TrEMBL record:
GO terms for cellular component: endomembrane system; membrane. The lineage of its organism: Bacteria, Pseudomonadati, Thermodesulfobacteriota, Desulfuromonadia, Desulfuromonadales. It catalyses: a CDP-1,2-diacyl-sn-glycerol + L-serine = a 1,2-diacyl-sn-glycero-3-phospho-L-serine + CMP + H(+). Belongs to the CDP-alcohol phosphatidyltransferase class-I family. One of its GO terms (molecular function) is CDP-diacylglycerol-serine O-phosphatidyltransferase activity. It comes from Pelobacter propionicus (strain DSM 2379 / NBRC 103807 / OttBd1). This is CDP-diacylglycerol--serine O-phosphatidyltransferase. The keyword Cytoplasm does not apply. It is found in: Endomembrane system.
Length: 271
């Protein structure tokens, strides 16, 4: 945590004394409430509802910042409160859900994987708060914690959707599927604290005029999502999760060329 200067501490204290903005913080509270209710559903064994509530929490989390910006009610208090709510809704909640649902038989390895997910999510949020003014807004550094939580929730929903199989297979995933899940948790934890960049969907160009073909593509995609919402939600989350590593690998040759060019430039300057 960056130490605040005395002046910044005084300004923060005075700002809180004057009051806080209700509307955006109320939306943040709704996100945290959905995350907490997801915890309750997990404890009650209702993993389907727990996964749905994580997505509801993610929607609220996406709205609070937009509400604050549209109403001109952004504040440092709101930023910190949002991060604390995210630790609950997208860190503790999905970790407990996937541990209770599939990782419990692994014993220590299972709960350590769940804890690693929570710890990496908290570290990801702390790094985001520190770098928020120094990193371009079009890209996230590391997988955002709401996306990681939604990936876990989408996996649970996909298993629940496959109720064509015996119910025992849904409630008690096979050993092969458990291995896949614990691997997924470790992978998501690594991606959250990595330096791999992800698209943030905050590009203003997205709301500008686009070719007619983009509208047709969006309509077709909407029809496919409505036809198979669970499968498509899982596919979309998986594509977004993999987009970072794929983009990193595709951009590796270009980065190597830039590094070599910079190295040559430094050597020529020394000579």
């Amino acid at each position: 945590m960056n130490p605040e200067t005395p002046q910044e501490r005084i300004e923060t204290t005075e700002s809180i004394k004057r009051g806080i903005y209700i509307l955006p913080n109320l939306v943040t509270t709704a996100s945290m409430f959905a995350g907490f209710y997801s915890l309750v559903s997990t404890l009650n064994g209702d993993y389907y509802m727990a996964a749905i509530l994580i997505f509801i929490s993610a929607v609220c989390d996406g709205l609070d910042g937009k509400v604050a910006r549209l109403t001109g009610t952004t504040s440092k208090f709101g930023v910190e409160y949002d991060s604390l709510a995210d630790v609950v809704a997208f860190g503790v909640t999905p970790a407990l859900m996937v541990y209770s649902w599939a990782l419990r038989p692994y014993g220590r390895l299972g709960w350590l994987a769940a804890f690693l997910f929570v710890a990496c999510g908290a570290l990801r949020l702390a790094r985001f708060n520190v770098q928020v003014n120094t990193v371009e807004s079009k890209r996230f550094v590391g997988l955002p914690i709401p996306a990681a939580a939604c990936m876990v929730a989408a996996t649970v929903l996909l298993f629940h959707h496959l109720n064509r199989f015996p119910q025992e297979l849904i409630q008690n995933p096979s050993m092969f599927k458990r291995v896949g899940l614990i691997t997924l948790i470790y992978l998501l934890a690594f991606l959250m604290v990595s330096n791999i960049r992800y698209y943030s969907f905050k590009d203003p160009a997205l709301i500008r005029r686009q070719p007619f073909g983009f509208l047709m593509l969006a309509v077709v995609l909407l029809i496919i999502v409505v036809a198979e919402p669970v499968v498509m939600t899982f596919a979309i989350m998986l594509c977004y999760t993999l987009s970072g590593p794929i983009g990193f690998l595709l951009g590796w040759p270009r980065r190597r060329r830039l590094e070599k060019a910079m190295r040559k430039g430094h050597e020529s300057l020394r000579q």
